[in-house]
Amino acid sequence: MRFDLAILTPYVGFLAQGALLTLEACVLALAGSLVCGALVAIARTSASPWLRRVAFVYVDLFRNIPFIVQLFFFYYGLPEIGIYLNAFATGVIALSIAGGAFASDVIRSGILAIDSGILEAAEVSGLSKRAIFTRIVMPIALRTSIRPLGSVFVNLVLTSSILSVITLNELTGTAKIVASNTFRPFEVYAALLVLYAAMTYLISLAIGLIHRRLNRDMMEAVR
């Protein structure tokens, strides 16, 4: 068999649409994951035992159930109780909830790593607990957590390939269609390997640049 990537030329635009849909779903899911993760991290560091238990159950549950099972539950299970979502919305919600379980650990670690002296100084200055949390705790926690949160984003991109099983034509879904049309799965999936590797590499590179920029700004602020 002769390896020939030229057969993909007519499908470049189609694959690009799939890649764009993947990135769109993952960016929305990242935002959802950050919201879920922040709320759960707040609950896990709260003084309320009840909130801590609920947050622990959420994290433990969604970290130990295969994502494809979660996805099937949202897409095929919820309609049975009258909740109907299209494939894109289902994918974003499922990724957000699953990603939130991982993001919560990252954000929680960032919260716990904050120097108690900073919090004491804020209290002495007369700031309310709410102001301390929103203006000091969360910004610092998110800034110090940027690199591990980047890993969560990369994982969302990789996990998004499973969304093709609910008929969403993201990158993997479009690749399946191209493979069935061309009868050349080797070239199609070789290209898919390269595309996912390129996407995750670029995301990791961007996260690294943001991390260094934030740290540089922090050091300049300290000086």
UniProtKB/TrEMBL annotation:
Record flagged with keyword Membrane: yes
Keywords, comma-separated and alphabetical: Amino-acid transport, Cell membrane, Membrane, Transmembrane, Transmembrane helix, Transport
Protein location: Cell inner membrane; Cell membrane
Principal place of residence: membrane
Pfam families for the chain: BPD_transp_1
Residues passing through the membrane, by range: 20-43, 55-77, 83-103, 148-168, 188-210
Membrane topology reported for the UniProt record: Multi-pass membrane protein
Amino-acid biosynthesis found in the keyword field: no
UniProt domain ABC transmembrane type-1: residue ranges: 19-207
Domain of life: Bacteria
Matches recorded under InterPro entries: AA_ABC_transptr_permease_3TM (IPR010065), ArtM/GltK/GlnP/TcyL/YhdX-like (IPR043429), MetI-like (IPR000515), MetI-like_sf (IPR035906)
CDD domains given in the database record: TM_PBP2 (cd06261)
Classification via PROSITE patterns: ABC_TM1 (PS50928)
Family that this chain belongs to: Belongs to the binding-protein-dependent transport system permease family. HisMQ subfamily.
Functional summary from the UniProt entry: Part of the binding-protein-dependent transport system for glutamine; probably responsible for the translocation of the substrate across the membrane.
Protein name: Amino acid ABC transporter permease
Taxonomic lineage from the root: Bacteria, Pseudomonadati, Pseudomonadota, Alphaproteobacteria, Hyphomicrobiales
